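hi! just following up on the protien thing from before. the input was this:
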Amino acid sequence: MTESCFAVSIENNIAHIVLNRPKAFNAMPRPFWNELPKIVNDINDNAKARVIVISSTGKHFTAGMDISVFTDGESITAQGGDQHTRAEAFRQFVLTLQGSFNCLDTARMPVIAAIQGGCIGAGVDMTSACDIRYATADAFFQVAEINIGMTADVGTFPRLCKLIPEGWVRELAYSGRRLPAQRAKEIGLVNDVFATHEDMLAHVMDLAREIATKAPVAVAGSKRMINHARDHSIADGLDYIATWQAGMFSPPHMMEAFAAKAQKREPIFPDLAPIRKEM
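and the predicted 3d structure came back as:
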């Protein structure tokens, strides 16, 4: 299927979401913020894949939020009410934008980002919500909001502070400087750097295929536990994983893994079940 901002394909249990506006440097206009969660939630809720890969086209991964988000139609500066009601409405607007990337963090399956060229502004918000990041040698990350007189607000700081040392977050946030791919690897923001876009995508898809062969419930549980550990104390994390295992421990999946290894074949696991949202 094709959306106005994305090209989406699903094959061999891997969903590939491609930012598809290279002439606009994949800037994020208003439709982007509705399309991305729609696509991701459809894959997640209907268990259409076991892994999600996000890549892009053209010179830059994304130039960040398109100015049209602020200027088209009922913009965030729309008149109506008094100062306080407008402030409350603006807060809800920001929460809506944040929700467009939260779906990546809460999806049951891992999300892998393949980043080339500039990953700017809201691009940092988006990729920091992914599970794993890879980059090309020419890639760079930029918390560019400070350069237009605003604070990054769609997810960069809460997530970036969990991914890289706080001093680096502060330098990027206060200065608006670019973080080159190699330095991003050195401080742990990306797992590896590749010479070309093709090399990066080949590696990412190979990893995605490997993950897709694992037991989906175990992968989903691992993501859930890692996210919970990130957001809670060690004691809370240990307690939560014990509770999870009490309900999700799967001897049949383990037996299939053992049998497949003994028989030197790929294991066959059931997909995640679709999520019922209507009664």
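The chain has two domains: 6-212, 216-262.
The CA atoms of residues 229 and 237 lie 5 Å apart.
cheers
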